Amino acid sequence: MFIRFLMFGANHRLITFLFLAIITFITGFGLYNLSMDTSFQSLIPESHPDKKAYDKIVREFGSDNRSIVYVKDKELWSKNKLAALGKLHFALKELESVKRVDDLFTMRSIRGDKGKIDSRIILEHIPKDLAAIERAKADALYNPLLVDNVISRDGTATAIIVTQYDTQDKDIFDANVNKALEDAIAPFKTVFQDIFQVGEPRVNAELTAILFSDLKLLAPLSALVLVSAILFFLRSGFAAFVPLVTSALSILWTFGIMGWINLPLNILTAMLPSLIVVIGSTEDTHMIASYFQGICQTKENHRTFATRYMMKHLGVPLILTVLTTALGFASNMFNTMEIIQEFALASTIAIFANGLITWLLVPLVLSCMGPLRTRIFKDNNSLVGLPAAFVKMFGYTKRRFPRFILLATALLCAFFIYQCSNLVVTNDPLSYFRKDQPIIADTQKIHKNLAGMKFFYITLTSDREKAFLEPEMIKQLAAIQDFMEKQ
Fold first, then answer.
1. Which CATH number does 2-33+236-370 carry?
2. Are the C-beta atoms of 391 and 383 separated by less than 8 Å?
3. How does pLDDT run across 168-221, given as a tens digit for each residue?
4. Which of 387, 236, 369, 376 is nearest to 293 (CA)?
């Protein structure tokens, strides 16, 4: 009874083919709904107290969805360069996605003058003479809140801080914002010695581009390695073709289902094609090797006998492997991070899809057009060629050096357990890029000449109204600042 269940694909070919075709057709339409999510929000659990505190701060002080437009020029404080800087300011301000622009044209200088406070916008308009330019430069470099944040210490580099509106559709929004910012600064690349923009929109847009590029490269590369290994060991083109078909269908089903249930691609789920090819092909390879063994068991070289032999010996291991692997990935759904939950769900779908396709399709294909000859087994069912050499080598070491193998395994385990202590956990989005990426070089320039991209806020609250206007509280703030400067 159970073997009939395992042989369903081979015994009911038309029903199986129609079922696989219909599911493939339906899931194929889900690809149109597949989206990409590279935002940082999925790295923070919604239920975490720090996330709730962060949301509260955003509501009170405004969005921190900002990009920095970095401008550097040795003659920055000249009439022509300041005029170009003013045009850039207004070009950025006119963008639909921009909520606010903070730079030398909006920030104020604060000075004490004869017992009074002299406060004015640093560049309220473009200075017309050298004296006015020098005064504006002096005002900018005098303000400690601006130095290293908006203006470099030598006065040759400045930052324009662009705050964008918040939106739910981060994927499309960030791509549009990044393009709008790049288009806005493009005319000024020939004006200033160095100009670029860095922020969450650019990070997300470039990360999305890299993920798509990796998908195009890694999935075919994994398939090439798989085909090469199967051809090398099993010496059969048909044996290499079957895992490619099951892997391709599994990827299509998985991404299609993700599209239907609005599960986006992210930095983890983008690994699924390679994961499916590597993990899913193991069952196919074992099954085809068992099929070849079954071919040698019958003098008539009957495909049905060989397929039945294969399922009888590997049907139960196939089901158990699929279940245990899927449950292993599914266990990550209990993680509090949304990005890991999404990966757990997507990978579980992928493993079940691959298992179902393998169970139905491989027996169907082998029973219809499976090879009737094999070059890895003799008529007496013994291995020949390279596979036989590997089996003999491992068998020899197992018989002659069992204690050495156990000792070496124990030492390696101890070594790698020790190395686990050197693992570093990070959720820095910039760590996802290679060191030679332009965005990394740009970020390092901002870090070298200004405060950099990596900053954090300390927010203090009090139950008393206007508490932070009281002298005693201001002293406490100064003490906190002194403490941090010593770190």
1. 1.20.1640.10
2. yes
3. 566 667 788 888 999 999 999 999 999 999 988 888 888 888 888 888 888 888
4. 376
